[in-house]
Design a protein that fits this description.
By secondary structure, the protein is an alpha/beta fold. It has eight helices and nine strands. Strands 3-2-1-5-4-6-7-8-9 form a nine-stranded mixed sheet, sandwiched between helices. Helix 4 crosses helix 5 and helix 5 runs parallel beside helix 6.
Length: 271
């Protein structure tokens, strides 16, 4: 497989040659495009990733063929517009979660697009995660700092000609996503001019009461959001412990409670 991954990020550009963006926060949003290839030996759900001591082999591993940086939003929007037009007017925005380095986020959206056979234009929104398990508080603050940037990125995708914008958020990325959608609702444009498609909330690392308040401000969506939860999610169990033993949305035991908000709750505990 070959996929052009468009990137909007609140990360700082890295000083290391082998790393494009690092875990530091940037006050400005940066833009790029990465041409990714998926090896023929790829298995669904997996990311075949080269270890440091292994030679580069696109036949065995996910591989970044080239990286294009854009000097400003205008240049990025022009390139994005051409891709969206060539892909039937569809775009998918993926927002990663906690403990995710830049390269891991790129690999993950590539795997999602490859395995789902997605036909639109993939857009990665990557906020400044420290990429370490001990950076939970830092990541939480970075996610909060990225809310306005994600809101503007969604508006940019709409301006670039997308007729349908799908969203997949994972873990702590759901906090950024829900805050951006809440801000869109406050501005009177909660569905991006009828362009909002599927909104998938996968294992959301959000306090249940906070989510309820976000949905109350957003309102019942015209098309139900899709929530994937599991009551045996170890990562969310740790998150809940750090938050004072408060239940997280992604492992909430009362999915029928959430369904009243206009959300299809899919319990994957037994899967």
């Amino acid at each position: 497989g070959r996929h052009d991954i468009f990137v909007a990020t609140t990360r700082e550009k890295s000083d290391r040659p082998a790393e494009v963006f690092d875990g530091r926060r940037s006050p400005q949003t940066s833009y790029a495009k990465i041409d990714m290839t998926v090896p023929g030996v790829h298995k669904t759900g997996e990311i075949e990733r080269r270890k440091r001591n292994q030679p580069v082999d696109p036949g065995k591993y996910f591989f970044a063929q080239s990286i294009t940086g854009y000097g400003d939003e205008t240049a990025f929007e022009k390139a994005l517009r051409a891709s969206i037009a060539a892909n039937g007017g569809r775009a998918l925005v993926f927002i990663h979660g906690y403990n995710t380095a830049f390269d891991a986020a790129v690999y993950r959206i590539t795997q999602i697009v490859q395995d789902s056979d997605y036909k639109g234009t993939p857009v990665l929104f990557t906020w400044a995660s420290g990429g370490s398990t001990v950076d939970y508080v830092y990541d939480n603050n970075s996610a909060s700092a990225a809310r306005d940037s994600l809101e503007e990125t969604l508006r940019l995708v709409a301006r670039a000609g997308a007729k349908r914008i799908d969203i997949i958020a994972h873990s702590m990325g759901n906090w950024v996503t829900m805050e951006a959608l809440r801000q869109l609702a406050i501005s009177g444009d909660r569905d991006l001019g009828k362009r909002l498609g599927d909104v998938v909330l996968a294992s959301p690392d959000i306090d249940v009461d906070v989510f309820k308040s976000q949905m109350k401000r957003y309102g019942v969506p015209d098309k139900p959001f899709i929530l994937f939860l599991s009551r045996d999610d170890r990562a969310l169990r740790i998150s809940g412990f750090l938050a004072g033993n408060r239940p997280r949305l992604g492992d909430y035991g009362k999915p029928e409670d959430i369904a009243q908000l206009g959300v299809v709750a899919v319990d994957l505990s037994q899967v």
